[in-house]
Design goal:
This protein is an alpha/beta fold. The chain has a single domain, classed as Aldolase class I (TIM Barrel). It is 43% helix and 18% strand. The protein has an eight-stranded parallel β-barrel with strand order 1-2-3-4-5-6-7-8, surrounded by nine helices.
Length: 291
C-alpha cells in the first residue's frame, strides 16, 4: 500500500492567528515540528509584510534553522509560499528551501484579493516563477484555491479543476498541484470525483488535498479525497488557520492530529518520533491559546 505524503502547515496557522507569535516561539515550534518527521513543512511566505505581518520574519527564521542544520535535504522538505516573482527570487536564495508554492485561484475575485493579479496575469507570473525554480533546483507547487466553489457567486464547475490542472502541467510542467477547499464548502461526492478525475487524467502529477473543515466536522472529506486516489494531504495541528475570507471562524485547516490518527489506523503513515509529536501538540496548545 502506498504511503501518504503529509504536509504540516504552521505557516497557514500562524498567518490566520489573530495574536502575535514571537520569533523565538516560532523557531522553537519549528524545531519540534522538524523532529516529528513530517514529509513537508510549510514554514513561511515571502509576501508583503503589510498584508501578512506574521510572516515578516520568514528570512530570519529560515536563516536560523539553516545555521542549526535542521532543514535537511534528506529529511522533511521545506516549502514556502510566494505571490509573485519577487517572492520567488527571495525564496530561491535559500539552499534549504526545496518547494515554492503559489496560490492560483479558480475565482477571478479571489485571485485579485489574494495576489493583486487576474488569473491570466497569475499564469504569466507562474511561468516566470517556474523558470526561477528550474534555475535554482526548486520545485513549484501550485495550490488551486477556491477549488470547490467560492462565496462570490462566480461560475464554478468541477471540470475547471481538470482544465486548470491540464494547463499547469502541459504549459508550465507543474508536477505538484493541491486542490484547495478554501472556504470549506465542498461535499464528499464532489471531492472524491474531483480527485479521481484529475488523477486519472494526469497520473504523473502529484495531487494534494488542502481541505478546510468546520471545527465540528468529521474527516469525511479527507476520506473522500483518499477514495479518489489522493495521497498528499495538508494539515495544521489543532486545525488552526484557514482562509480569512471564509467569514466563518469555525472554518480552519484539517487538524493534523486527526489526519495522523486516520492514516496511522489505515497503515498509510506513521510517526517517526513520538516524543517530538507529543511535544509539538503541547507547544501548539500553548502558542494557539485563546488570549
Amino acid at each position: 500500500m502506498e504511503r501518504i505524503h503529509l504536509v504540516e502547515c504552521p505557516r497557514d496557522a500562524l498567518q490566520g492567528w489573530p495574536y502575535p507569535v514571537s520569533t523565538d516561539d516560532k523557531i522553537a515550534y519549528y524545531r519540534t515540528l522538524l523532529d516529528v518527521g513530517f514529509d513537508t513543512l510549510d514554514l513561511g511566505s515571502f509576501v508583503s509584510p503589510k498584508v501578512v505581518p506574521s510572516m515578516a520574519n520568514t528570512d530570519k527564521v529560515i536563516n536560523i534553522l539553516e545555521d542549526e542544520g535542521l532543514l535537511r535535504k534528506d529529511g522533511t522538505r521545506a516549502l514556502v509560499i510566494v505571490a509573485n516573482e519577487r517572492g520567488a527570487e527571495r525564496a530561491s536564495k535559500f539552499e534549504s528551501i526545496q518547494d515554492i508554492g503559489f496560490p492560483l485561484s479558480l475565482s477571478e475575485t479571489f485571485q485579485q484579493k489574494n495576489t493583486g493579479a487576474s488569473i491570466e496575469e497569475a499564469f504569466l507570473r507562474l511561468d516566470n516563477i517556474q523558470n526561477t525554480c528550474s534555475n535554482n533546483s526548486k520545485r513549484l507547487v501550485v495550490y488551486l484555491s477556491m477549488g470547490f466553489g467560492n462565496p462570490y457567486g462566480e461560475d464554478w464547475h468541477p471540470e475547471m479543476l481538470t482544465e486548470f490542472s491540464n494547463r499547469l502541467n502541459s504549459e508550465l510542467s507543474v508536477e505538484v498541484i493541491a486542490l484547495s477547499d478554501t472556504v470549506g464548502n465542498a461535499d464528499e461526492e464532489t471531492v472524491e470525483k474531483a480527485f479521481s478525475a484529475v488523477i486519472s487524467d494526469l497520473p504523473k502529477v502529484e495531487f494534494g488535498a488542502h481541505l478546510h473543515l468546520h471545527a465540528t466536522a468529521g474527516m469525511k472529506k479527507v476520506e473522500a479525497a483518499l477514495r479518489g486516489g489522493c495521497l498528499r494531504f495538508d494539515g495544521a495541528i489543532r486545525g488552526i488557520g484557514g482562509c480569512p475570507l471564509a467569514q466563518d471562524s469555525l472554518v480552519g485547516n484539517a487538524p493534523t492530529e486527526r489526519l495522523v490518527e486516520l492514516f496511522t489506523n489505515k497503515g498509510l503513515w506513521n510517526i517517526s518520533n513520538e516524543r517530538a509529536w507529543s511535544q509539538a501538540q503541547s507547544m501548539a496548545a500553548s502558542i494557539f491559546a485563546e488570549h
